[in-house]
Amino acid sequence: MHEVIICEKPKASEKIASALSKNSVKKKYKKVSYYEFEENGNKTTVLSAVGHLYSLAPKNKKQGRLFDVEWVPLYEKDKKKKYVKDYVDAIKKFSKKADRFVHACDYDIEGTLIGYNAMKYACGDKSFDNAVRMKFSTLTDEDITAAYESPLNIDFNQVDSGIARHVLDFLFGVNISKSLTDSVMQATKRYIQLSAGRVQTPTLAILVEREKEIQKFIPEPYWMIKADLEVPGIEEGITADHKAGKIFDKTVADEIFADCEGKDALIDSIDIRETVKTPPVPFDLGSLQSEAYGVFGFSPKKTQQIAQNLYTEGFTSYPRTSSQKLPKSIGVDKILKKLSYNASFKHQVAKLKKPYKPNEGKKTDEAHPAIHPTGVLPKELSTDYRKLYELITYRFISVFGENGILESMKTNLKIGKQDFNFSRKRMAKMGWMDLTPFRKPDVDVFPSIKEGETLAVKDIRSEEKETKPPARYNQASLIRELEKRGLGTKSTRANIISILYTRKFVEGKKIKVNELGEHLIDTLKKYSNKITSEELTREFETELREILDGNEDKELIIERAKVELTSILDDIENNKVKVGEELYESYRESRVVGKCKCGQNLILIDRPRGSTFVGCSGYPECKSTYSMPMGATVLKVTCEECGLPLISFGKPRQRACMDPKCGKDGSEPTNEIVGTCPECESDLIKRSGRYGEFIGCSGFPKCRFTKSLEENGDENKTPTKTYKKPAKQAAAKKSTGKTAVKKTKATTKKAKAKRVPKKSANKPASKKTTTRRSIVKKSPTT
After folding, report:
1. pLDDT in tens, 365-420
2. Residue 485 to residue 471: CA distance in whole angstroms
3. Cβ(151)–Cβ(134) below 8 Å
4. Is the pLDDT score of 616 beyond 70?
5. Average pLDDT taken over every residue of the chain
6. Residues 758/725, Cβ–Cβ less than 8 Å
7. In Å, what is the CA distance from 233 to each residue of 229, 444, 456?
8. Residue 119: Cβ-neighbour burial (10 angstroms; 0-12, 13-18, 19+)
9. Are 87 and 53 in contact (CB under 8 A)?
10. Counting Cβ atoms within 10 Å, is residue 508 exposed (0-12), middle (13-18) or buried (19+)?
11. If pLDDT is split at 50, 70 and 90, which confidence band does 689 have?
12. How many beta carbons lie within 10 A of that of residue 599, not counting itself?
């Protein structure tokens, strides 16, 4: 018998093959690795996908509305994914004579769909006649073996739910984006690429709503009365607050202040209480993303990617889970014992009391337990991977800790006739907080004071402040908001937020919506409110879950989506010119980066091939243009020399005036011949660029040889020949086979060092040595 196992990623196929047989042999087909072994006369081939191998595409791109879709190989739709073809070909080749198929992709909707499509389109429909499903939450030998020996049937409800979600996202995203782009083209004869989506647009609408709340907010002045006290045993003293808190009437604040001046504080009462601090609950994906953002500043998408790779390496469990439960089946005792082989974890595990009982949360997930370490200890991890691994592991250990006890002291005072108080907190018992370095306990010193005693008042202060607008969302708080509102899934929310940044709708760690994002939502709400509707999105999320439970038919949900989508597209079509004009005006406003010398706006303009330059909005009357280096950003700071914005560019980042001629006194390059090019034997001449003067070949652009003025040395000497790429250098490009998890700083530096000679002939060496010092020096932030 010939058995084929299909895995989701190459690393997973390696793990599964090695767990199932010590005799597995790694082989190559084209550029794809696969594994084979024979046990008891049965041959097994372990193959791999690389995520989704197939993607949705319209059957006829020329149709106005792209409602008829089909699954096509990813490499046919996206030319950047040519490498996917080898994986598809490998599955096709080795599945031809297979008798049994094992679906071993990750056990969630996406993983199920990846494996299903691979079997349906690469292996053929007959592959389902004798197919089983492996379900595992960790890539440890024990879990893999157990999943292989006790397989499940393929859950076709999971498949249908995944197909329906992909079809809905495609229909809404592609058709609405296309309709908006066409509207701008029809109204202005200009092409700009606009983006909208089934979950993306309601998410942007939430951010715009918050942005408008901030814009409409009118700050209101208030006063806080504070008393600085001399307290025995507390060298820095203690500050007490008036019990009224925020006082919005200045007259009242002045009266309180006057009543307190020159008087000491009488201790009226002291209240000491104890509060039980229960251990934290295990991480689900959302809480892990939130905690990693708060502790390390990791974006939700980065956290999800690292957690996925830690799982693939076998160090932690499957991350895309909603569960806050740790069932006995995961083998808690065994995991904690393995963690004890690490010196740091051993110290914490030793503090736990048996029998181990976790403090679990309410949330559950039928597919997977909460995120936890497997007990497999990594030998090498890069800094960010180590941080997240330790965050997961210390949280896991803390879950089994004892309750902590927080002691709080509230002291009520009288200053004149006015009531004041201050509070102090300290941990009377550390409990679980002694098991993690990621929680800082309260450590206030309690003063030795008694009721009826008097404390000297060093100072009475009346602080005037203003109320603050609602806080902007950050990525972690937005993830929580989307979860609360039932928008998106645990797996998709991070990517949705990332898309909003990529599309330039939002910016900053405290998420600020720019003009384009704000006006896009305003325009859509004005002409078709359904696009931004949370209710519609939530209804579809509910129906997708109903498909998963077997209570809904995917085809009916897709047909209903087409009806809703048709209504939205009709609204846009009926107001096409108005929609296009308003969106284009919003787009233009969002691209303004400063003022031109003529008084008009300077705007970012995209060339058809992807590069960007800055031009004047007064064109054709004003024809001022400024080239932009690749990856440059325009800053809000202006050049003191000419008033144009500064730009940030290069690696490491440098600053310079947007005008490359600024600070050069109008002087033009002399094109003085200073030698002979070692590459093509043309003349070497002095050139001038954004980085200053440098030596370049006169044969440019055919020859791109450059070097700095310092390298040139004596003008009469023949230039030194630059490093030529040796014939064997191509071999250095070959992969070492190490994953991202195992990369260390040392290996990264080595890899970079090997690539330097290859690029040296194309990069102006003068970037590092010559800058426009007059501009850089005058930058206020430099």
Report:
1. 989 999 999 999 999 999 999 999 999 999 999 999 999 999 999 999 999 999 99
2. 18
3. yes
4. yes
5. 87
6. yes
7. 12, 12, 13
8. buried
9. yes
10. exposed
11. low
12. 9
DSSP code of residue 706: E
* Nearest to 691, CA basis, from 761, 619, 763: 763
What pLDDT sits at residue 712? 60
How far is residue 492 CA from its own chain's centroid?
A: 11
Give the pLDDT score at 735. 38
Q: Which residue out of 54, 87, 107, 318 is catalytically annotated?
A: 318
**pTM of the full structure:** 0.80
User: Please, which residues have CB within 8 angstroms of residue 351's CB and are 6 or more apart in sequence?
Assistant: 401, 434, 435
- How many residues does this entry show for the chain? 782
Token digits for 380?
Answer: 């090498």
Residue owning tokens 């209101």: 220
Evaluate whether 451 touches 269 at the Cβ level (below 8 Å): yes
Q: How far is CA 732 from the centre of its chain?
A: 32
298 token code pair: 């990791």
CA distance 697 to 682: 7
Active site residue 318: yes
Cβ proximity of 93 and 29 under 8 Å: yes
Q: What is the CA radius of gyration of the chain?
A: 32
CB 662 within 8 A of CB 639: yes
The pLDDT, as a whole number, for residue 587 is: 84
Amino acid code (one letter) for 326: L
Distance CA 213, CA 472 (A): 10
